[in-house]
Amino acid sequence: MITTDFGDLISARVRSEHETLAARWFERLVDLLPVDARKVFPTSSLLDHVPSLILEIGACLHSEHDGAIAANSMVLQKARELGALRHDQRASLHQVLREYQILGGVLVQFVLEEIDGLPSSPPAGACVQSVARIHQAVDVLAQTTVEAFVELYTKTIAEQHERLEEFTRMATHEWRQPLGALQFGVSVLQQSDLDAAAKKTLTVLDRNVSHLIDLTRKLEAVARIHSNGDSVVTQRVPVLTVVREATRQLREMADMRAVEIRIDEPMPELTIDVGRLELTLVNLLSNAIKYSDPAKPHRFIRIRASLESRDTCRLEVQDNGIGIPRDAVSRIFQRFTRVHGALDPLLHVQGVGLGLSIVDDCVRAMGGGVHVESAEGVGTTFVLRLPLAAPTLPG
Ligand code: ADP
Q1: Phi, psi of 93 (to 5 degrees)
Q2: Distance 257 CA to ligand 1 centre (A)
Q3: pLDDT at 395
Q4: How much is the pLDDT for 78?
Q5: Residue among 332, 333, 335, 384 whose CB has most ligand 1 atoms within 8 A, to mutate
Q6: Which residue, by CA, sits nearest to atom 25 of ligand 1?
Q7: DSSP state for residue 121 in the 8-state scheme
Q8: I want to staple 22 with a disulfide (CB 3.0 to 4.6 A). Which of 50, 61, 89, 395 is the partner?
Q9: pLDDT tens-digit profile of 337-367?
């Protein structure tokens, strides 16, 4: 409680001068903000809002008031509307906070002017309390405005993200057919009688088309995982069945690079989204093959699965490949991160840096987690922890 008359006096003065104070605030904005405030606040609605906020702050200064803005007060609603308005006007969070800082400054300066104008100085405690209450009220209003602003901002980002994913889905769908035709055309030409230069050109063309097809497939997978319409087939399945299917798909690639794939049996059963588990394994296995170490005479991948606890399965994909540098381990699950790009010609690989982000997305959607243990020159192990029974809701 403000026990002196000063609180009542200053409360009344702030309330009676609220229009003037709002105008002062506006003038200071024009001076201080790096934007034309008249363009930023063209609406009368905002200029209505600020005087009401000042009225409420004035009320908080009254000695009968407990100094706090009530959680259900209309003024909080106005502060929220202000957040929405500033969001629609594409203001930055910094600007919004700066506007409130300016408001606090204008009000405190007004209190100091009022003190100066009094015939005798009010008690220091009462002055300090008034200033503290101004800051407290401005903070509450600023917080409310910022909350509304951030809520809308987050929603806008999510919508933009969804539109981008939708674009990716559409674009990759459209690319698939012409790329397939291109690949077919190249393979037909490769059968024909061509001179060495033309064959070389075709080889380069073939490599680039394959790269584009791989990129398209991966982008499609990324968009599908994030799509709400992604059909999830959760079923009870022996992990071994999914491991065998993933291995089958990569057998040719593994043979070409002389990489032995060992599967440790037995393996437990899971109730899981089989499509996502297969996609995860295909990505991990193809990486293990791609980044196998040509300098090692015996290259292998080992896949193990066991019950880690009553409700968790531990699935490991281990290789004795080139390994991952320690400082890169924390980044490899981020989209478009490639660590061994410089080794591509030596390893004869191409990549886009999407495989592990797909793995991470899939594993999360299956309700599990993934981490990596790696030593350069020794090898890499990806460890997946998956629930024995999948969560009922998709990704
Ligand atoms: P990419 O298309 O480049 O293979 P990924 O997202 O699948 O993209 O992998 C990201 C990077 O992580 C790779 O470029 C590679 O540098 C590294 N990496 C992934 N798996 C392995 C592995 N088994 N051994 C060594 N490095 C790996």
Answers
A1: -60, -35
A2: 16
A3: 41
A4: 87
A5: 332
A6: 323
A7: P
A8: 50
A9: 999 888 888 888 888 899 999 999 999 999 9
Per-residue pLDDT at 85: 86
Cβ atoms within 10 Å, residue 309: 9
CA triple 72-44-67, angle to 5 deg: 30
**Gap from CA of 131 to ligand 1 centroid (Å):** 58
Query: Within 10 Å of residue 70's Cβ, how many Cβ atoms?
Result: 13
Place of tokens 């599967």: 263
Distance in angstroms (rounded) separating the CA atoms of residues 85 and 87: 5
Q: CA–CA separation, 337 vs 223, rounded Å?
A: 18
Mean pLDDT (the chain, rounded): 88
Cα 205 from chain centroid (whole Å): 36
- CA of residue 332 to ligand 1 center, whole Å: 7
| Cβ–Cβ under 8 Å, residues 91 and 83 | no
Q: Are 370 and 363 in contact (CB under 8 A)?
A: yes
Compute, in angstroms, the gap from residue 341 CA to the centroid of ligand 1: 9
Residue nearest to atom 19 of ligand 1 (CA): 287
Pairing of strands 312-319, 379-387: antiparallel
Positions in the chain short of pLDDT 50:
1-3, 394-395
Question: Taking a C-beta distance cutoff of 8 angstroms, is the pair 351, 211 a contact?
Answer: no
Contact 87, 46 (CB under 8 A): no
Q: Which atom of ligand 1 is nearest to the CA of 354?
A: 6
Looking from the CA of residue 319, the nearest atom of ligand 1 is 23
Position in ligand 1 atom list of the atom nearest CA 335 = 6
Q: What is the whole-number distance in angstroms between the Cα of residue 201 and the centre of ligand 1?
A: 28
Ligand 1 pocket residues where CB is under 6 Å: 287-288, 290-291, 319, 321-324, 332, 337-340, 351-357, 380
- What's the CA gap between 386 and 234, in Å, rounded? 13
By the 10 Å C-beta count (0-12 exposed, 13-18 middle, 19+ buried), 154 is classed as exposed
Specify the amino acid at residue 190.
Q
Q: Which atom of ligand 1 is nearest to the CA of 358?
A: 6
**pLDDT value at position 2?**
44
